[in-house]
Amino acid sequence: MVNPKQVCVIGAGVSGLAAAKAFSTRGHRVTIVERSGDLGGVWEAARSYPDVQTQSPKELYRYTDRAMPATYPEWPTGPQVHAYLADYAKSFGLDRMLRLNTEVAGMERRADGKPGWTLALKHKDGTSTSESFDFIAVCTGQFNEPRELHCPGEDGFLAQGGQILHSSKYGDPALAKGRRVVVLGGSKSATDIAVNAVKSGAREVTIVMREPVWRIPYFIGGLVNFKRILYIRAQEEMFPGWGASAMARFAHRIAAPLVWANWRGLESLLKAQLKLKQCKMVPNERIEDGINCSVPIATPGFYPMVADGRIKAVFGTFDHYEGDSIVMSGGERVGADVAVLAIGYKLGVPFLPEAYRQKLVDADGQYRLYRLIANPDLPELGFVGFNSSFCTVLCADLAANWLVRYADGQLANQPTAQAMRDNIEMMLHFKRVERPAAGVYGGLCVAPYHYRHFDELMADIGAKNQKRGGLAGRFLPPDADDYAKFLASAPEYPVTT
Fold first, then answer.
1. Cβ atoms within 10 A of the Cβ of 277, count?
2. Distance (Å) of CA 87 to CA 10, 68, 81, 91
3. Per-residue pLDDT tens digits for 56-108
4. Across the chain, how many H-helices and E-strands are there?
5. φ, ψ (nearest 5 deg) of residue 72
C-alpha cells in the first residue's frame, strides 16, 4: 500500500498540469503554485507574441487523455493552446489546486525530520509564508526566466527614444508600425517576430543571428508534413544512440553511406525549397550534426522576405548601441527604433539551495537527471517537462506518469541510487563526447531520440504494450492515443486514503 502524499507542483504550464493530473489521479493531495496570474506557462496571453503558433502538429502537441478540438488547425495558435490547457485543467479539477501569484522564493529540507521539503512562498501582496510538502515536482521547464543582454551605449539608446524588449514582451504588433525593428536571435520566435513586423508596417526590419541554421518547413518539398520524416522511428535509428553494443555500432558503419545520402538529399531539398543560396543563408553545419531541440521550424514568409529585401539578415550579434543605431560584432551599423531580444530563457532552478544545485548541475551546465526526471541525490524531488522535445506535451505527460510511480516506489524497474548514478554518467559521456549536439539546453533535449526515450519510460513503468510493431510502427510519428493504451496496460497499485 502507498500512503497519500502532500505534493507541491511548481509551475502551472504544460508540464505542471501533467504532473498535477498524474499525482492527483494516484490519490495524492496536490497543490500547484504558479508565480503568474494565469496558468499556461509560455502560452499565457501575457507572455505570447502576435501570430505565435505551435511548432508541432496538434496530434503531437497534446496529452494522452485529451485530444485538441477537431476544429483546431494542424498547428494551433497561442490562444487556442491556452484554451486547450485551461479546459484540461477545469475538466480534471486541476484549477481547484491552483495558487496563482505565488512564487517559490526558496526551499530547504524539512526541519521536523520527515521526508520532504519546506518551501518559502512569496505572495502578490508582498507577504511570505512557509509550507512543508512530502514531495516536490519542479515543472518550471525550459522557458522560465527571460535572458538579458546589456551592451555599452544602451542607456543613450533608450534616452533618445529607443526601445529594448525581450521577445516575450512583444505583445502588440502596433509597436512595429513605421519603425525600424531589429530582432536579435535565430529561433522561430525571432523569425516569427521579424515576419510580423514586416506585416505590421515596420519601416525597416533587420534580423541578427550568429550564423545561418537549418530550418524545417511545415511541409518538406511543399508536400510531405515534416512529422512524417523527422518524427519517425526509422529516421531516429539513423542516429547512433547511447549504450550501443558493438554489433549496433558495426551496423551503423555498414549503413553509413545510405544514411549520408539521406541527409544530403534532405539538405538539397531544403536549399531548393527555401532558396537558401539566394538568401545567402546556407548553413555551414551538416544537418544531421545539429538536429536537436533547437532546430526551428521555418516561419512561413521568412525566406521570401529575406530574398526580396523586406527583411535584412546580418550575421553576428550586438556589440554596442550608438545614438539611434546598433553596432554589430562585425562592425556593421544598423539604424534602430526597437530592439527585440529573441535570445531565449535562462535554464535553472534558482530556488534550490546551492548545495543541491551542485548535485543537479555540473560545472559545464549539464544536468544530472536519470531519464531527465530524477536525481538520486535529491530525495523527494523530481522534474517534469525538463525532457525537452518537439513533442513537449507528450514528453511531459509520460514523464509525469513515470515520476509518480518513482515517488511511490512502484516502477516496474525501480532503479537503485547507484544504478541511476551509473546511467547518468553514461548519458553525460554520450552527450559530451559521442554526440555534442545532445548537450543543448543543459543536456535536457530528447530530440532526435523521442522513441528511444519513450521506450525507456514505458519499460520502467511496466507497460505490457510499449510500442507499435511492424513496418507501420517504424514510419509513423508518435501517437498520444497509443501511449494512453500503453499506460493503461501498466500494473495498477493501491493508494490508501
1. 10
2. 20, 10, 10, 6
3. 999 999 999 999 999 999 999 999 999 999 999 999 999 999 999 999 999 99
4. 17, 20
5. -70, 145
As a whole number of angstroms, the distance between CA 413 and CA 419 comes to: 11
Residue 358: partners with Cβ closer than 8 Å, 6 or more residues away: none
Q: Measuring CA to CA, how many Å separate 94 from each of 134, 238, 301?
A: 19, 40, 39
Report d(CA 106, CA 109) in Å as an integer: 11
Question: Could you please report the per-residue DSSP string of 216-281?
Answer: B-SEETTTEETHHHHSSHHHHTTS--TT--HHHHHHHHHHHHHHHHHHHHHHHHHHHHHTHHHHT-
Q: How far is CA 479 from CA 85, 390, 395, 396, in A?
A: 19, 13, 12, 14
Grid coordinates standing for 238? 539513423
Which residues does the chain have with pLDDT short of 70? 142, 497
Q: Under a CB-based contact definition with an 8 Å cutoff, are residues 347 and 442 in contact?
A: yes
DSSP symbols for 26-75: TT-EEEEE-SSSSS-GGGSGGGPPTT-B-SS-TTTSSBTTBPPPTTS-SS
Q: What's the distance, CA 160 to chain centroid?
A: 37
Report how far residue 370's alpha carbon sits from residue 418's, in angstroms, rounded to the nearest whole number: 11
The predicted structure's pLDDT at residue 307: 96
For residue range 459-480, what is the model confidence (pLDDT) as tens digits? 999 999 888 878 888 899 999 9
Per-residue CA distances from 132 to 34, 140, 475, 486 (Å): 16, 19, 47, 34
Q: Are 181 and 198 in contact (CB under 8 A)?
A: no
| Pairwise CA distance, residues 336 & 317, whole Å | 14
* pLDDT at residue number 347: 86
Query: Which alpha helices (H) appear in 319-391, and where do they start and end?
Result: 354-360
Residues ≥6 apart with Cβ < 8 Å to 429: none
- Strands laid side by side in the 325-328 sheet: 318-322, 325-328, 333-335
Q: State the CB neighbour count (10 A cutoff) for residue 178.
A: 10
Confidence at residue 70, expressed as pLDDT on a 0 to 100 scale: 96
Q: Comparing C-alpha atoms, which of 142, 149, 167 is closest to residue 52?
A: 167
Three-state DSSP at 471 gives helix
How crowded is the C-beta side of 157, counted as CA atoms within 13 Å? 22
The pLDDT of residue 96: 97
The length of the chain in residues reads 497
| SS3 assignment, position 9 | strand
Say what the alpha-carbon torsion angle 488, 489, 494, 497 is, to the nearest 10 degrees.
0
**Cell numbers 520524416 correspond to what residue?**
229
Q: Identify the sign of the CA torsion 215, 54, 21, 117.
A: positive
Q: For residue 53, what is its C-alpha cell?
A: 503558433
Distance CA 431, CA 437 (A): 7
58: which 3 cell numbers? 496538434
| Cα gap 294→441, rounded to integer Å | 9
